[in-house]
Design brief:
215 residues; mainly alpha; single chain; globular
Length: 215
Amino acid sequence: MDVTVHLAQDPEADALLGRSPLAALVGMLLDQQIPMEWAFKGPRTIADRLGADDLDAHEIAARDPESFAALLSDKPAVHRYPGSMAKRIQQLCQYLVDHYDGDAEGVWRGVDDGHELLRRLEELPGFGKQKAQIFLALLGKQLGVTPRGWREAAGSYGEPRSHRSVADITGPESLAKVRAFKQEMKAAAKTAKATKTAKATTATTAKTAKTAKKP
């Protein structure tokens, strides 16, 4: 894997993501509850603090959990919740050691069916269906991994010329579009929740009033 990406909006961090399958997986794992570029800068920060040019699944899985958590917690912290994310990263690395001999690229190397690749990604610790679909879309759109049916397996995230996720970030402009889309989705979800709550309150009030009228 040797591609140019602009996920972290930082040259050194993006260079690592473009050549290291494990760094890309770890960045995807970190991409929750913090800005996307912060998440994808994380692998470079971790590598620097380990004094390495790349991440190694065997080394990370074998590290003392407390010391690894402390490494992620040092200022600036790698994540808003460095302790829990340190645990998840070690779980991911241990899974890769157990199932792929520590070779992150083995998750998708030689896989010729998009749905099979999605299944493999969903099996990774910390990867639910949505995260797996987004990473599959990233593989197909930017990392040159395009097994048969990958767009369909990635769902809406695989759609061309969309701006739904990190898979569509190629620079500052697309990052702004993806962030705007996410904000729209959050606003829509908030409105839907408020509407549902209002309807439930109205129904409860009506039921209470009806009960009160009974002799």
